[in-house]
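Supplementary Data S3. Sequence and structure tokens for construct A.
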Amino acid sequence: MTAIVLFDGVCNFCNASVQFIIARDPKGYFQFAALQSDIGEELKKKHQIPEKLNSVLVIENNTVYNSSDAALFICKHLNGLWKVFYLFKIIPKTFRDILYKFVANNRYKWFGKKDSCTIPSPEIRNRFL
């Protein structure tokens, strides 16, 4: 079983986050697709995801997780102490998403953005859809 992480392919913070996940997911549970890619567009349509959603998404078994739910879902499946962050799930989503949206709304200002999606290296290309 695998889960798909849909991320903003032009966001420097999002690309660094994908590399972070890959380094802590040696079994390859997560696969990745940029929201701007053809497969990203197909998955958004298939799962009726709004075009202007400002969030990382995780799709597992036709269930879509967004915002802080997606981030915590990812932490739950990473190697090491990152699993501990899943305990934040006890905090109501409304409150968790306030912090998530603050970072999401400022990510370009703080970390910058690229003109186009990053091409994955040959070593990890099989993780990208």
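Construct B, processed identically:
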Amino acid sequence: MHLGNAVTAAGFWLGTLLPVAYFPVFLVGIDSTTSLSILLTLLAVHMVALVIGHDYPGSR
């Protein structure tokens, strides 16, 4: 497996599984700037993972 394929696979699986990390943030609530920054960071990482993992052959 080449490095590019491994990165694409990691991006795909991270993009697939990362929404599970949203639940604790929503359960605790977004009532502070720390919680908001955690949520925005999760969303940014999720978007990057989706873009990187878009061409993963197992996703079709």
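The chain has a mean pLDDT of 90. The longest helix spans residues 33-52.
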